[in-house]
Amino acid sequence: MWTAALTLMVAVAAAVVLKGLAHRRPLAPGAPAPDVEARDQNGKVMRLSDLRGHPVVVYFYPKDRSSGCTLEAQAFRSGYGQFRARGAEIVGVSNDGVASHKDFCGREALPFTLLADPGEDIARAFGVSGLFGYYHRVTFLVDGAGVIRRVFDPVRPRTHAQEVLAALDALPGVATPAPP
Fold first, then answer.
1. Confidence band, pLDDT 50/70/90 cuts, at residue 20
2. Is the pLDDT of residue 7 over 60?
3. From 3.40.30.10, 1.20.120.530, 3.30.70.260, 3.40.50.720, which CATH number describes the 2-170 domain?
């Protein structure tokens, strides 16, 4: 009797681990960015296509208020003016809910959009994998026509925003502001 119960527990644990390790391959440069829709930190529905005509940084991160995610968000916040000067938008995505995103934006004074993806629809559309319910850290640089031009994987949270900014400057048609 206890052998059957132990076997069942091992099977369930293995299924949970395998589900958590499910790996998707991120969309590649040259692919069209999916036209996803989700609620932002204010509960407003946003579609990625609403940002067409502007380059968009779509960055996936594991969890609001975790140390690495906070560093990455702070780096994008610090460089936000430079991204906007180039006409770019920044959109962060995790499977945290709207209330968590609102709290995270308030605590960190984030001036950009965070999309709630509790059903993991956006992650699936972009091919972003996760482990035990936390997204893999990956960033997509999408041009104004809605085409993915760069995929950043792996990501170093502290220096990532500057790496993305340099790639943005290399995109055709992006005006780099003159130094002051």
1. very low
2. no
3. 3.40.30.10
Give the C-alpha separation, 155 to 84, whole Å.
Answer: 21
Catalytic residue, candidates 36, 69, 105, 110: 69
Q: How far is CA 90 from the centre of its chain?
A: 9
Question: What are the sequence ranges of the domains in the chain?
Answer: 2-170
Quick one: residue 148, left, alpha or beta (phi over 0 = left, psi -120 to 50 = alpha)? beta
Could you tell me the two tokens for 22?
A: 């499910």
Q: Supply the pTM of this predicted model.
A: 0.85
Is residue 105 annotated as part of the catalytic site, yes or no? no
Model confidence at 22, in pLDDT bands (50, 70, 90)? low
